[in-house]
Specification:
Radius of gyration: 20 Å
Largest sheet: 5 strands, antiparallel
Shape: elongated
Distance between the termini: 41 Å
Number of domains: 2
Strand content: 35-45%
Structural class: alpha+beta
Oligomer: single chain
Low-confidence stretches: 1-7
Strand order of the largest sheet: 1-2-3-4-5
């Protein structure tokens, strides 16, 4: 038996041209199209969607595949994390909708890079960080344990604070010894 490489699009369509259910049907994926889906923003910049005749308030966009490709296979979900539907590609939608959804993805996956760790103090199961980032100086709190500080590669660290904000240390090896010792305690 040989293994065959398959693309995501091959997984999501039936091999026989449509006579048997593909992964999309088996997984009950509902694809959203501009024909039956309208996105709007509230005055407070919350995303709403009307899909298949049903209005959903306060939805968010989730990247289903690598977060490096933020234009394909976007899952639209309720605040309860229930999927409303999937967008195959933003290119299928009008430019105004593309811009609106791109903005929502950027907000959701915003992750400033930490350039300097000023202090990390641990107390009662939390660590309190003070750091210089690409978005300025930030102070944030990280829950201890539970994988809030994760190695993404041997040299890249992801930190998720108690509010769900993400921070990246792109190069652990570029930290000073003092900075590394502060961070190491949380890893």
């Amino acid at each position: 038996m040989t293994l065959k490489e398959v693309s995501v699009s091959e997984l999501l369509r039936p091999e026989d041209g449509g006579s048997s259910p593909g992964l999309a049907e088996a997984a009950q994926i509902r694809y959203l199209s501009p024909d039956d889906t309208v996105f709007t923003l509230t005055e407070g910049h919350m995303l709403n969607v009307k899909a298949g005749g049903k209005e959903h308030v306060g939805v968010y966009v989730h990247c289903s595949f690598p977060h490096t490709n933020k234009r394909i296979y976007l899952s639209i979900r309720t605040v309860e994390n229930e999927e409303i539907g999937m967008i195959r590609s933003l290119d299928e939608f009008p430019e105004e909708t593309q811009r609106m959804l791109e903005e929502q993805v950027e907000l959701r996956y915003f992750a400033p890079e930490i350039s300097k760790v000023l202090s990390v103090k641990e107390e009662f199961g939390y660590s309190y960080w003070d750091a210089e980032t690409t978005s300025g100086r930030c102070r944030f709190t990280v829950r201890g344990g539970g994988g809030s500080v994760k190695l993404m590669t041997a040299n890249r660290l992801l930190i998720v604070d108690v509010d769900g904000n993400r921070f990246i240390i792109p190069h652990l090896d570029r930290l000073s010894d003092k900075e590394y010792k502060m961070v190491e305690v949380c890893m």
